[in-house]
Amino acid sequence: MKGSILEFNTGTGKGLIAGDNGRRYSFDAAQWRDPTPAYAGQKVDFEVLGDTAAAIYPDRSAATGDSSKKLVAGLLAILLGAFGVHKFYLGYTKEGLIMLLVFIFGFILFGLPSFVIAVIALIEGVLYLTKSPEEFDRLYVIGRRPWF
């Protein structure tokens, strides 16, 4: 059966999967059959044993792996990042406005805040481009991680 992980606690090794049939199944880390760690929001393929999930694998067919979004976001961050363009592109409107306003009004303080925002954008661009497409999706698209 296919579904997605709703929650997974690495401390206890317990988690919850929402099956495509609308039911929820509990699972423990021993049933995870992949060397990469499980995370909330991840699409999975699993076997059903009553109310529990067993033999859980990541659903590789569900992974977007869309490197174009990663590439565009990385280039926007490097080239126009001080204006927050990459944040707007990824749907982080609040963070984009913060970067834009700090950059514009930073010149009042001799440009130091504007320089800091430009450096942050450059670092984010490099981070975006060095991540794998799956990791980029997990962190910034699915996980909605707004900074670094």
For this entry, give a set of tags.
single chain; alpha+beta; OB fold (Dihydrolipoamide Acetyltransferase, E2P); 2 domains; five-stranded antiparallel sheet; 5 helices; 22% strand
Detailed description of the structure:
With 148 residues, the protein is α+β, with helices and mostly antiparallel strands. The protein folds into two domains: 57 residues, Nucleic acid-binding proteins (OB fold (Dihydrolipoamide Acetyltransferase, E2P)), CATH 2.40.50; 76 residues, no CATH class. It is built from five helices and five strands; from the N terminus they run E-E-E-E-E-H-H-H-H-H. Strands 3-2-1-4-5 form a five-stranded antiparallel beta sheet, with no helix packed on it. Strand 2 and strand 3 form a beta hairpin.
Largest sheet properties? 5 strands, antiparallel
Give the helices and strands as they follow along the chain. Answer: EEEEEHHHHH
How many helices? The count is: 5
Strand order of the largest sheet: 3-2-1-4-5
**How many domains would you count in the coordinates?**
2
